[in-house]
């Protein structure tokens, strides 16, 4: 009998070419599938809630796979952790009903983006934040972000190479708050994300924060649906896939 | 004329064999001295507040050096940061009076040790914490730690290979607190530290926290001045030299 196993996965994306298996590059999917094949003695196909790009981290990526193995889910998780490199950790493994699908069953995903807003860069946080040395007006960034809430066409924040994707997404929540003075945390929840969407939103919010564009100009860019009008793509190392909700 | 420059340095110790220059191993001192030689065009000798061991981090290590260079201190700091690898950052550079000595002028040093107290290890924090999966009674650890405050013989917490050092130190403060549920932060301030002293204190406090020894047994170990009675040496990656006070 086929069993359906759900994994909740934390990873440090620094040393990987993102989640999805690809030729000639080490990815997180490939590493976990390899260890699962050792444990279950069969080739395993992992389905994730979505890809994460090179250098992006996850606190709670979710993936599922079908197996005929009779090993209890919790034991599978422990065996995986004993075989996986320390920058990939299975936080939870559980057996679910056959219909559960890590991608299609997801109701929403939560991303966290961390800005290090300090004159001096940080040695410790260099792989886990985007260093921005100039003053940022977080209140203006908040007012701009509020335009994004709801069901909208997010074309202006898509990646330039993803023309054929439906650009409508329902963004449920976006919050910005300072953490320990020098960090700004941006938490975004949506029913789905276009490629680079969070990083493009953050890059454009930065332009508001440093007074390169106004709050109404931010909104005009958003309404234009024109990718070329928005700001830079924030770098991957500040981005964390925090949670997938089902 | 000789100028005396003080540096405040943050580093991620993960990729270094500690602070102090040694043969056949890359150290933080050697990296910074090399960049200073390029900038000032003279060999430079850096004096630090003290060594940090392999894998130990610093948020505020302090070092000073003498130079005949006329470059302003702030510019020296910026030039250093442009040459240094991203896991070593100069947070501040300032010119001080000739008598300032990073080691002998220090009044106290503050170390932070981070325990990840969670059933599951962490991919993101693996290099910045000590993972302890069992329950820890933080109140018992606090009561034990309070015995350490004041001027004492810390022989039981010295490294086994440091027999000839004066073991008397004045420990001004030790605090333990939970941070975001799964972390325990231990902050220790003293006028100086023996080799491995913080890590041996933390290893022995762990034994109290998991009820392997009682609070009074902890105190008996401390009073015995016998290194062989104390607990294990906690691993370096949880340790941060947070601040040096002058």
Structure, described:
With 246 residues, chain A is an alpha+beta fold. The first copy, chain A, has 2 domains: 3-96, Pseudouridine synthase I, catalytic domain, N-terminal subdomain (Alpha-Beta Plaits, 2-Layer Sandwich); 108-245, Pseudouridine synthase I, catalytic domain, C-terminal subdomain (Alpha-Beta Plaits, 2-Layer Sandwich). The first copy, chain A, has helices at 28-40, 73-83, 138-145, 197-209, 215-224; strands at 3-11, 47-48, 57-67, 88-96, 108-116, 130-131, 150-153, 168-179, 183-190, 239-245. In chain A, α3 packs across α4 (197-209). Chains A and B meet through β4 of A and β4 of B.
Salient structural properties:
homodimer, 246 residues, alpha+beta, Alpha-Beta Plaits, 2 domains, 10-stranded mixed beta sheet, 5 helices, 30% strand, globular
Write the SSE topology.
Two copies of one chain form a homodimer.
Chain A: E1 3-11, H1 28-40, E2 47-48, E3 57-67, H2 73-83, E4 88-96, E5 108-116, E6 130-131, H3 138-145, E7 150-153, E8 168-179, E9 183-190, H4 197-209, H5 215-224, E10 239-245
Parallel strand pairs in A: 3-10, 5-6
Antiparallel strand pairs in A: 1-3, 1-4, 2-3, 5-9, 5-10, 7-8, 8-9
């Amino acid at each position: 009998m086929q069993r359906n196993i759900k994994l909740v996965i934390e990873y440090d994306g620094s040393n990987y070419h993102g989640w999805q298996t690809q030729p000639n590059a080490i990815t997180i999917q490939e590493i976990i599938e390899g260890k699962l094949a050792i444990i279950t003695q069969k080739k395993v196909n992992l389905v994730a809630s979505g890809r994460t790009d090179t250098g992006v981290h996850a606190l709670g990526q979710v993936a599922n796979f079908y197996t005929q193995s009779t090993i209890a889910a919790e034991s599978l998780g422990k065996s995986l952790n004993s075989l996986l490199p320390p920058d990939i950790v299975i936080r939870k493994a559980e057996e679910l009903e056959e219909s559960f699908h890590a991608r299609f069953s997801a109701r929403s995903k939560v991303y966290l983006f961390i800005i290090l807003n300090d004159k001096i860069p940080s040695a410790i946080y260099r792989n886990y934040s985007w260093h921005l040395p100039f003053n940022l007006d977080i209140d203006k960034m908040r007012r701009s972000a509020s335009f994004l809430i709801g069901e909208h066409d997010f074309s202006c924040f898509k990646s330039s190479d993803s023309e054929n994707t439906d650009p409508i997404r329902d963004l449920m929540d976006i919050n910005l708050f300072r953490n320990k003075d020098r960090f700004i945390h941006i938490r975004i929840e949506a029913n789905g994300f276009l490629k680079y969407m969070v990083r493009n939103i953050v890059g454009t919010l930065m332009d508001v924060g440093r007074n390169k564009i106004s709050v109404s100009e931010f909104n005009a860019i958003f309404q234009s649906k024109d990718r070329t009008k928005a700001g830079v793509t924030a770098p991957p190392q500040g981005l964390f896939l925090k949670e997938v909700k089902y």
